[in-house]
Design brief:
This protein folds into 2 domains: 137 residues, Rossmann fold; 74 residues, Arc Repressor Mutant, subunit A. The protein starts with 5 loop residues before the first strand and ends in a 10-residue tail after the last helix. The protein is of the alpha/beta class. It is 54% helix and 13% strand. A 6-stranded parallel β-sheet has the order 2-1-3-4-5-6, with helices on both faces.
Length: 226
């Protein structure tokens, strides 16, 4: 009996990279690419429709970047394994994506063999971080032991999961109507979440939210260069 293939949806704003992923996967007997998306909204639609085993996710995408899309992916399909494939090699991205539910993080400079290894391990429920990033990530975690609590980060951690989603979308430039459509809630509920965010973080407006987000490393200006 033939073993069931691992079904993959890939998302990247660059068609050449998507095509490269498609060719890489096509040569593997145990993997099958069932869909490709060029932006976050299309990715969410495909994941809900196709229910893949894995998502290979770029961070820099229009219409929901990877950091915005990741928690929504896990909400729509909790069983999906997510591997981030990115040019961003800062350990803060690794921390944020793992915290949001990703199991793997590889760089676009990594070999096909490395990416395939990450996909297979993630499909088996295991974590995989690109070797070039591991040392920096481990060093950061070790150095953080015994540090004093950072008030700004603590305030962000008081936000609910939904409030954090709304926060990311607001600082990403989305208006309430767009956020409501993305999250499947009413604009009035978005405004309630926004009011709670302003109260908890003690920020007055969207500009202050953006400054706060950059300060605590929740988002990075590099991700807005769509």
């Amino acid at each position: 009996m033939m073993k069931k293939k691992i079904r993959l949806v890939a998302a990247d704003s660059q068609p050449l990279i998507l095509e490269g992923i498609r060719r890489m996967v096509a040569s593997q007997a145990d993997l099958e690419m069932v869909g490709g998306a060029a932006d976050g909204r299309e990715l969410l639609r495909l994941v809900k429709k196709l229910k893949p085993d894995l998502v290979l996710l770029d961070l820099s995408m229009p219409n929901l970047d990877g950091l915005e899309a990741l928690p929504l992916l896990k909400e729509a399909l909790p069983t999906v394994g997510v591997v981030v494939l990115s040019t961003h090699d800062k350990e803060t991205y690794v921390q944020q994506t793992l915290a949001a539910g990703a199991l793997g993080y590889v760089l676009k400079t990594d070999s096909d063999a490395r990416v395939l290894e990450a996909l297979r391990l993630t499909a088996a429920g295991q974590y995989f971080i690109s070797p070039s990033l591991r040392e920096e990530v481990i060093k950061t975690y070790l150095n953080s032991t015994g540090r004093e609590e950072v008030p700004e980060t603590s305030a962000y951690d008081t936000l609910t999961a939904r409030e954090q989603q709304v926060f990311r979308l607001v600082v990403g430039g989305r208006i309430s109507r767009e956020i409501a459509a993305t999250l499947g809630i009413s604009p009035r509920t978005v405004e309630k979440h926004r009011a709670n965010i302003i109260r908890k973080l003690e920020v007055r407006d969207t500009s202050a939210m953006i400054r706060y987000a950059i300060k605590v490393g929740v988002v990075d200006p590099d991700l807005w260069d769509h």
